[in-house]
Amino acid sequence: MSAANDHGLSGKGGVYHVLLASLLLLMALQPFADVGDGVVVRVGLAGMLLASMAAAGSRRRLFVIGLVLGVPAVGLAFLPGAIPTVADGFLTIAMLLFICFVILRRIARHPVVTAATVSASLVVYLAFGVIWAKAYWLVYHFYPDSFTGLSGSGILDVQRDLFYYSYVTLATLGYGDINPVGPEARSLAITEAIVGQLYLVVLVAGLVGMSLSQRQRRPDQ
Predict the structure, then answer these.
(1) What's the CA gap between 78 and 84, in Å, rounded?
(2) Longest dimension (CA), the chain
């Protein structure tokens, strides 16, 4: 099976580049979380989810799963009022976990290093930050005393702080301005730090290994 078809990465390279850009844009928009009742960040989140749906591919089963998870998540992102909702948190987590699974499976099945491979690998890493940010917000929603150092108690303020805290934890920077104090929050923080570091180690080793394998096969082609 060719790496250029829907099951590979090359044929979807543009989608992965767009998805990577949308994740970076979502990060850049966080300082504007309180603009227009969070409409700026909500638009960024919806764009990222739409790009994720496109990355699911045209294969019927994956496309249907992407629609089932992505359409309600995008719709909730645009609802006025209490955003993010609990349903939005769960749906966004489920959608991004699904996309990470699809991407990693494609990389495993088509071990060829291209620009699309690099973008797709980075998408998974950055998606981890959004997944855990939503998970932290769900923990905060059910256990409001799970974190100390948050700048405010409003939904948008908490979302922005936990988004920042998620990526600080993923990168194991550990600034210490926001701290998990509840057992659920601490468990999530430990898991995110471990997964983030293990993923980077495996990613670098995998990309190097695939690149060396490509070079060894090239003279025989």
Answers:
(1) 10
(2) 63
Note down pLDDT in tens along the chain; length 221 residues. 333 344 456 556 688 899 999 999 999 988 887 777 778 888 888 888 888 888 877 678 888 888 888 888 888 877 755 455 788 889 999 999 999 999 988 888 877 778 888 888 899 999 999 999 999 999 999 999 999 999 887 888 898 999 999 999 999 888 889 999 999 999 999 999 999 999 988 888 887 777 777 677 665 54
Structure tokens at 85: 């909702």
- Between CA 162 and CA 148 the distance in angstroms is 11
149: Cα separation from own chain's centroid: 24
One of 1.10.10.10, 1.10.287.70, 3.30.565.10, 2.40.30.70 is the CATH number of 10-220, namely 1.10.287.70
CA-CA-CA-CA torsion sign (82, 47, 67, 131): negative
